[in-house]
Amino acid sequence: MSSRIPLPYSPVVLEYFRNPKNVGRMENATVQSTAGSPACGDMIRLYLRIEDDLIVEATFESYGCAANIAAASILTEMIKGKTLKEAWEIKWNDISDKLGGLPPIKYHCSILAVGALKRAIRTYYNEVRKEVPDWLPKNLSTEEKQTMEEEELIERMYSRVPKSSGAENGK
Amino acid sequence: MPPKEVYFDLENSGYVPDDVVDVMLPYFNKRGYGHPAITHRLGWEALDLIIGTKELVAKTLNLANPENLVFTHSGTEANNLAIQGYLIANRDKLRGKKVLVSSIEHLSVIFPAQFVSELLGLEVIKVPVDKEGFVDPEVLKYYVDRDVGLVSIQLVNHEIGTIQKLRDLIEVVRDRNPDVVFHTDASDAYGRVRIDLRDLDVDMMTLSSHKIHGPRGVGVLYVRDGVRIEPILRGQLSVEKLWPGVELTPLIAGFRKAVELAFNNFEENVKYLTSLRDKLLNGILNSVSDVVLNGPSGDERAPDNVNVAFKYVEGEALTIELSGYGVYVSSGSACSSRFLEPSHVLLAIGREYELAHGSILFKVSRYHKGEDIDYALEVLPKAVDRLRTLSPLTPRRA
Questions:
Q1: What is the maximum alpha-carbon separation in chain B?
Q2: B205-223 tens-digit pLDDT
Q3: What's the rounded Cα separation, in Å, for the pair B26 and A107?
């Protein structure tokens, strides 16, 4: 494959885009979460297998641009083997740093990835363990807030657009 | 390096063939590099080139007077000159009036219309299109009243290839309000769709060099006699009375050659383009599942335009993936355009956001060979499949 794609993307981003790690749906996931939406053009679904507060396995699916795929992929690598408390400490800029930097217009991809992670951790304690530890803040983190804002914004924009009925092939 | 490279991104920037480059080079330092308004040999050569090129372009349009053509430095500039120049020159009689543009116009029409209208207190109205991008004459009729001053509707859409039934639209406009000035952006028609100005009753028309394999840096505006336009840039006028600055003679020389090449075998070229377009489109529909065509098909579509949405994948990722194979395309996705919203053209024809995000534009060219299309068709399913295996939206089939 060629490497002549003009940067804004770092070589790390392109490498994770081309050879993403931990791809795919996890059938025996303890918890899964989604951030973003198809309408945004960026959506990450995260699957975690958790044993005794430890993330033993993490996989993802991504609908989105190269930065989105790379951010989700590197996140799964970063959190594997971490306790949920350690994983909670990851910030969106840790992802962009690890990726060798992202163009500012793509920061939201690392926000979505960390947003998905924090949603998964919350869902785990709220719905699976049904017992919330002291260290988990009640208020939404920056990443959860911004993920929600992006989803709400696109929802508002989308509601202006009529649904289409285009010709399409039936395969 | 990929085994082969095929450039389909002719919408955004053209490929300039060697024979066009070759005629440009002498105009930098061998001949005609003088100022065309100055009286010495090198200036006269420049002037000859400008006049000769206008005569050639006029002939291709069936236009009697080449002096109705103005060179600008791009199609974007020609559109700006038409819209801004007309509105500013006629601001007194246009006070409180309306400007109609189709909702799928190039942004170099929509943005200047909005900008100047705001300054002058005019109202811009975007006329809706149907799901294939056509302005319905009956719908247009509803919008044209005595308060409309300017209408701009492109002949061929740059993204989805819709060939507008422009004569019908002009007839509606003339019938409802004979004072309206009608501009058409024909950048994506010229050299591919026959334009006859004896037959097409427009007041202003834009052409662009890079859309016909000429160099970037040459636009043309046709302005009918009696239509008053104000220059929108200020400075020393040279040969052009509406566009200041020294004419770009090397680029105009390249444009002239590109016009010759496009019109030498016009019918054959169009037939060839159409065959490549259909080979590519049918090949995609047959080899990739869940694909939606954007825009009309058959004779209602520009012969060089293929625009399809691949469901479940995002366009920017697909352009990068295809680039790895040496296939260069552009996308209607928000990501690739650096705006939050995807292509306004795709939204205007009612495409859902996710389909707009997954849309890819290919433009075929007479410089493509059948094997280029074969190669694109060989790698496209692989590229789409890989991204679909990553996507949570892809339906899992048992």
A1: 79
A2: 999 999 999 999 999 999 9
A3: 48
CA dist B87 and B369 (Å) reads 45
Structural domain span for residue B207:
31-263
Is B168 inside any structural domain? yes
ipTM for the assembly: 0.85
How many CB atoms sit inside 10 A of residue B13's CB? 11
Residues A41-91 pLDDT 10s: 899 999 999 999 999 999 999 999 999 999 999 999 999 999 999 999 999
Token pair of B266 as six digits: 């016009």
Query: Is there a domain that residue B257 lies in?
Result: yes
What total of structural domains would you count in chain B?
2
Strand B291-293 to B359-363 pairing = unpaired
Give phi and psi for B301, each to the nearest 5: -110, 145
Instruction: Please report which confidence band the pLDDT of residue B338 belongs to, taking 50, 70 and 90 as the band edges.
Output: very low
What amino acid is encoded at B129 in this protein?
V
Would you state the structure tokens that stand for residue A96, as one six-digit string?
């962009």
Answer yes or no: B104 catalytic: no
Q: Calculate helix-pair angle for B370-390, B266-287, nearest 10 degrees.
A: 30
- Kindly state whether residue B26 falls inside one of the protein's structural domains: no
Is the CB of residue A159 less than 8 Å away from at least one CB of chain B?
A: no
> Where does B288-398 have alpha helices with state H?
315-324, 334-337, 344-348, 353-357, 370-390
How many CB atoms lie under 10 A from the CB of residue B269?
19
- Residues of chain A contacting residue B314, judged by C-beta atoms under 8 Å apart: 41-42, 63-65, 68
DSSP for A148-171? HHHHHHHHHHHTTSPPP---B---
Structure token digits, residue A14: 């392109």
Chain B residues near residue A17 by CB distance under 8 angstroms = 317, 320
In this prediction, residue A164 carries a pLDDT of 44
Q: What are phi and psi of B173, to 5 degrees?
A: -65, -50
**Residue B310 Cα to chain centre, angstroms:** 24
Structure confidence at residue A170 (pLDDT)? 38
Q: What is the CATH number of domain A11-158?
A: 3.90.1010.10
pLDDT for A118-158, tens place per residue? 999 999 999 999 999 999 999 999 999 999 998 888 778 76
Helices (H), A30-106: 66-79, 84-88, 92-98
Number of H helices, E strands in chain B: 15, 13
Query: With an 8 Å Cβ cutoff, is B289 touching chain A?
Result: yes
Model pTM score: 0.91
Q: Name the CA dihedral angle for B89, B92, B98, B101, rounded to a multiple of 10 degrees.
A: 0
CB contact, 8 Å: A171 with chain B?
yes
- Which residues partner with B293 through β-bridges? B308
Which residue of chain B has the CA closest to A72? B390
Q: CA-nearest residue of chain B to A60?
A: B390
